[in-house]
Amino acid sequence: MFRTHTCGELRIDNNNQTVTLSGWVAKRRDFGALTFIDLRDRYGITQLSFNEEYNQQLLAESRKLGREFVIQVNGMVTERSSKNAKIPTGDIEIVVESLTILNSSLTPPFTIEEETDGGDELRMQYRYLDLRRDNVRANLMLRHAVAKHVRGYLDQKEFIEVETPVLIKSTPEGARDFVVPSRMNQGEFYALPQSPQTFKQLLMISGFDRYYQIVKCFRDEDLRADRQPEFTQIDCEMSFVEQEDILNLFEGMVQYLFKQVKGIDIGTLPRITYEEAMHNYGNDKPDIRFDMQFNYLTELVKGKGFPILDTAECVLAITANGCANYTRKQLDELTEWVKRPQIGAKGMVYVLCNADGTFKSSVDKFYSQEDLKQWAEKCHAQAGDLILLLSGTTKDAQKQMSELRLEMGSRMGLRKKDEFKALWVVDFPLLEFDDENNRWHAMHHPFTSPKPADIPLLDTNPGAIKANAYDMVINGVEVGGGSIRIFNKELQAKMFKTLGFTDEEARYQFGFLMNAFEYGAPPHGGIAFGFDRLCSLFGGADSIRDFIAFPKNNQGRDVMIDAPSVIDAKQLKELGINSQI
Ligand code: ASP
User: Fold this and answer.
1) Ligand 1 neighbours (beta carbon < 6 A)
2) Do 143 and 260 reside in the same domain of the chain?
């Protein structure tokens, strides 16, 4: 038997018991006639003690043990003379009676501690060692807990987990596909699913009624901190439901997860329309942990001789409470911040609302105290507040102000990691116009249903159509999104046409779905949650990478196994791929 207990298990109640433990040498401390070793496994750390008086030979052997050696010890649980309140096993130690080295280890390239000296790249290269660190393991245990509670909730609501294939035909979800060449059908390719969208709709046609799957999806996109080429969704679909049913059921799931995983009651989720989100926050995934909504000053600022504001299509302002004490230096720095290419503003106007009721602005030359007072009223600003203005086209001003709002929220400490504010954003437009390619794109995906009352607009004004589509947003992160689907062949055909597919292309790519619609497709709809994102949110981290056991880096590489990699000529030939570019 390798062990009678784990390294996290023994307490003072076990005093005087003889036990066997196995684990890794986390730390060795030598003191003349005495050696202490911290023995680590997944469950914790237990101190081992070797001393000269007790057994000289064992003491000598213990001194050969390096970090990360795998050992087995047998010994007596003994009360410690100096206890360690920081760890659960800190009242006891094992006085070792026999020692077996199960395996040696090279010196690890970085310290396996919460605070490690290893850089990102090195830790990823030796991810199996990185995963021995408590905090990294804790992230994966959190992930496990979230998955378990998702399954628990959905099972209780009669959802069935069904696996869908990974080698499929392309399903457009707005990203590029990863493709796999077929050896048996040379010159042809599978696509890896960007999501199981069409399969879950087919399952509804099959009568499964409620489906879910915690499933890998693949999108060949440029990567950012919160993106991975392969990621996991909690993918769900339901039949005989309206939008309201879906919102309620999945609001319940997220409330349940917060309660189970974090012990937090997040309450009822507010619902705002896409239009309101854009108007008030300039963003379809607003962070509502803080208010700071947009004020529209376009008309109010006109006619005082300041050309930039006079001619702007849109003038927006936000009020930063209590920031009238910003120094000139801070304001200049903020102005430089909005002018960075990533934000792209031409400049920024500010108004300090002084404690004595006067105003100091960067445009005092053009605007009187009375003018600025009116601005302040419009912006609900009080003495002590700072008003920031940006102007431009409505689209640019909203986008830039959205960034500035988030930045001010961060600078003012209003975006706390341990505070969670979730909401639904509903009534998304069905389509968005792609100026570059001069065509309509589905904002969610081509299977999303227009609101029934808007269907006639497909012929006259597609841009005005609203969809039965919704996103769940938590702390400014889109954690889930879905829609009510089209389930009628004619409407689906019309949708493909609006998106610029010829009949033939639509049939080639989606014939199977259109055919299925002819065999009694029920009304249905669904949603998918970004599982990695949800976990990183629960864990209070910005990057999803920390919650994935073996993630890829920013270049889409796995630096540990060194993938992607070239394949040999023989393999290429078998696949019917002749030359390598
Ligand atoms: N398949 C969609 C997505 O991946 C989600 C859904 O509509 O259910 O975003």
Assistant:
1) 173, 195, 197, 481-483, 526-528
2) yes
